[in-house]
Design brief:
Blueprint lengths: L8 H9 L12 E2 L11 H23 L12 E2 H8 L1 H4 L1 E2 L12 E5 L2 E5 L4 H11 L6 H9 L3 H10 L4 E3 L12 E5 L20 E5 L4 H11 L3 E6 L7 H7 L4 E4 L5 H12 L3 E4 L13 H7 L4 E6 L14 H7 L2 H4 L14 H19 L4 E6 H10 L17 E4 L6 E4 L24
Parallel strand pairs: 1-2, 8-9, 8-11, 9-10, 11-12, 12-13
Antiparallel strand pairs: 3-15, 4-5, 5-6, 7-13, 14-15
Helix pairs in contact: 1-2, 2-3, 2-14, 5-7, 8-14, 14-15
Length: 446
């Protein structure tokens, strides 16, 4: 099996954005055949670089916890087949033999009077908002197609957004440059001292409060769970998660429901926060600030915490406060137009690479912050990852052939019944996910 020996350019870029020592980037090695296909953008290179940076960050934390320093980091080689399979984990999922529902009937590309629109209606409240915006006769794919065809793409976008739904006009040019990683604050206070970790579990004993949804944030936290962290996801009981989505991303964590507007639940949450080492959030800017849970507020109360925040469109600018998903950012950032077919219909990346890639970067950022002692906040966005993909990720040259997903597929029992799923690029989880929202809102004993 071939293992690359030269430093990978994209890995060096990702590692540098995370603040890692430049001389360590060359320690990441890749092997195996990738499976993300050829296309106009370097998706394979982005995918392996984000996983490679995460592998290096995990090795760095392991070295620090063993009493050494970053210079002692010795990451294992990253298998590109495992990376490719993990980046499309939602496609490989089978729930009791059934294929998952990844996109609802009203989610997709629709021709407008002057271009194209991408909608996202996977969640019932987003579907209802879409129908409110475009009229009751838009409740079927055929009717939605007709409702959009008579309007401009920008009109559809703004009408749907105004009702709380999700629609984005397909951009023909790339969006404005965005940073891959942003420092969002540093308290100067150290986090809890972490002792020596068991082999292969550099995040063992680390308590991660997971306030994320859908794919990018949950990929980050399931990765931290795979590396040993005690991950507890908290959701509002009024904002259900899609069962198939959680069956894919719920590995390596537990899931509980708390209503932060209820005094008793808020008391429980504050107790969890008081004993957390890491908080990962995946809501648009301002959403958690309304509950006093923005990065600045949390670091003021718990100066030693590591806080990692991610959003869709970036942390400033006119779209910062808008909801978004990978497919919408691809459309609004110019990627969908880049992948258009000969008939002009917009296309998509071979994976939801903005979601998955950002997820591994978030996990890497958390691991690096822990290795450096905690007490800091980091920001990530799908638009930042998109900006990196279209502008800076260098091509890696010809890839080995012979990719197959089967070596990386596993079966397990879960709260949803039997699952076929994709293992992670760093190994496997100890068990399948519980059902969403059914665990106790409490940390495991250390």
């Amino acid at each position: 099996m071939t293992i690359t020996g030269e430093q990978d350019g994209a890995t060096a870029q990702a590692w540098g954005a995370l603040g890692g020592a430049p001389e360590l980037a060359g320690r990441v090695r890749y092997r195996g055949a990738p499976g993300l296909g050829q296309g106009p953008l370097p998706v394979r290179e982005l995918a392996r670089a984000t996983v490679g940076a995460c592998a290096l960050a995990a090795a760095e934390l392991a070295a620090v916890r063993a009493g050494g320093g970053a210079a002692d980091a010795d990451p294992s080689a990253v298998d590109e087949g495992a990376v490719a399979t993990a980046f499309v984990s939602e496609r490989h999922l089978r729930v009791r033999g059934r294929e998952p529902v990844n996109f609802a009937p009203l989610s997709g590309f629709w021709r407008a009077a002057d271009g194209w629109v991408r909608t996202h209606a996977n969640y019932p409240h987003h579907e209802a908002a879409l129908v409110r915006a475009l009229g009751p006769r838009s409740a079927t794919p055929e009717a939605l197609r007709a409702a959009i065809a008579g309007r401009t793409a920008a009109e559809v976008q703004e009408r749907v957004y105004g009702e709380g739904g999700l629609a984005v006009a397909v951009a023909q040019e790339y969006g404005d440059p965005r940073p891959l990683v942003e420092a969002a604050g540093e308290s100067g206070a150290p986090g809890r001292t972490l002792g020596r970790a068991p082999a292969g579990l550099p995040a063992a004993g680390v308590r991660v409060l997971d306030l994320t949804r859908v794919i990018a944030g949950p990929v980050a936290t399931r990765t931290l769970g795979m590396l040993g962290a005690d991950v507890l996801r908290i959701d509002s009981p009024g904002l259900p998660e899609a069962a198939d989505t959680y069956a894919d991303t719920g590995f390596g964590k537990r899931s509980a429901l708390l209503d932060l507007a209820a005094t008793s639940d808020r008391t429980v949450f504050e107790g969890l926060l008081a004993e957390a080492d890491v908080v990962v959030t995946g809501y648009r800017p301002g959403a958690l600030e309304r509950h006093g849970l923005g990065a600045a507020e949390v670091l003021e109360r718990r100066p030693g915490l590591v806080v990692a925040q991610l959003c869709a469109w970036g942390w400033d600018g006119p779209w910062a406060g808008r909801r978004g998903f990978d497919s919408l950012v691809q459309a609004g950032y110019g990627i969908a137009a880049r992948y258009a077919g000969p008939d002009g219909v917009p296309g998509v990346l071979p994976a939801q690479a903005l979601d998955h890639g950002t997820g591994y970067l978030v996990a890497a950022g958390v691991l690096r912050a822990l290795a450096e002692g905690g007490g800091r906040a980091l920001r990530f966005s799908l638009a930042g990852t998109a900006s990196w993909l279209v502008r800076d990720v260098p091509a890696a040259g010809p890839a080995a052939s012979g990719y197959a997903a089967e070596p990386w597929l596993r079966e397990t029992d879960s709260g949803y019944g039997s699952l076929r799923y994709a293992a992670g690029p760093f190994g496997d989880w100890a068990c399948g996910p519980s059902r969403w929202g059914t665990d106790r809102a409490a940390w495991l004993p250390r």
